[in-house]
């Protein structure tokens, strides 16, 4: 185990090298723990094709689900950023498809969220609104809202999230995201607060940000249910 800059460290696990925060309390809310591997004695056969393991047909564990497979059924190595692996790792066909979709989120949508969008923000039932830039923090743990004032929403304290739409887009396509309604508990409070955001000046950028946040919400839900 060795320390590296920016509060992260390299950790070697049975599955491979991982780059994780120095303090586990600062893990990204999108991250997932490594699974418990199915014990070798409990999997005499491949859990995909039912081939019996022997000295020639060795067993391999999928790094995402922890189940046992033969080399033919678990030969693909795919990036797994949600578990912080440095290099692509061995995964079964089912898991590799899920991971490939998540890689797209990390490569594209996450950059959109970090870049931010401009919204008209209303807190609670107030009749006062403020134009603010909303972006995801670099550690993925907070939404930063900046305008004349500044405040933060911790993703782990969001209890519900609804993407608002403006109906169908020109040409009869899918509806475009026009805003977001959040319910969250501020730090030190058990009472839920409502936050409403509506797209402001650059509607295209803001709509893309909301679409990315919609995908992020799905990952957050999965991570909480792990």
From TrEMBL:
Indicate whether Ribonucleoprotein appears among the record's keywords: no
User: What gene name is listed for this protein?
Assistant: ZFYVE21
Q: What positions does the domain FYVE-type occupy?
A: 40-95
Q: Which CDD domains would you find in this protein's record?
A: FYVE_ZF21
Tell me which domain of life the UniProt entry assigns to the organism this sequence originates from.
Eukaryota
Q: Which PROSITE patterns match?
A: ZF_FYVE (PS50178)
Zinc: present as a keyword of the record? yes
Tell me what organism the protein belongs to.
Ameca splendens
Q: Which of UniProt's keywords are assigned here? A: Metal-binding, Zinc, Zinc-finger
Its recorded name reads: Zinc finger FYVE domain-containing protein 21
Q: Which residues cross the membrane?
A: none
């Amino acid at each position: 185990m060795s320390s590296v800059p920016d509060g992260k460290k390299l950790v070697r696990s049975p599955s491979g090298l991982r780059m994780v925060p120095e303090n586990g309390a600062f893990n990204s809310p999108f991250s997932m723990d490594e699974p418990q591997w199915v014990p070798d004695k409990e999997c005499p056969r491949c859990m995909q094709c039912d081939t019996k393991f022997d000295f020639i047909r060795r067993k391999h564990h999928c790094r995402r689900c922890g189940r046992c497979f033969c080399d033919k059924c678990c030969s693909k190595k795919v990036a797994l950023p949600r578990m912080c692996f440095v290099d692509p790792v061995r995964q079964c066909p089912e898991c590799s498809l899920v991971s490939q979709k998540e890689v797209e989120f990390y490569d594209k949508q996450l950059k959109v969220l970090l870049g931010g969008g401009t919204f008209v923000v209303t807190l609670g039932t107030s009749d006062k609104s403020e134009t603010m830039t909303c972006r995801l923090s670099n550690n993925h743990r907070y939404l930063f809202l900046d305008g004349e004032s500044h405040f933060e929403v911790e993703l782990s304290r969001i209890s519900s999230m609804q993407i608002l739409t403006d109906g169908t887009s020109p040409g009869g396509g899918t509806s475009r995201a026009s805003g977001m309604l959040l319910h969250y508990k501020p730090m030190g409070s058990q009472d839920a607060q409502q936050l409403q955001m509506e797209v402001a000046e650059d509607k295209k950028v803001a709509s893309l940000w909301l679409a990315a946040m919609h995908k992020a919400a799905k990952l957050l839900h999965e991570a909480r249910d792990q």
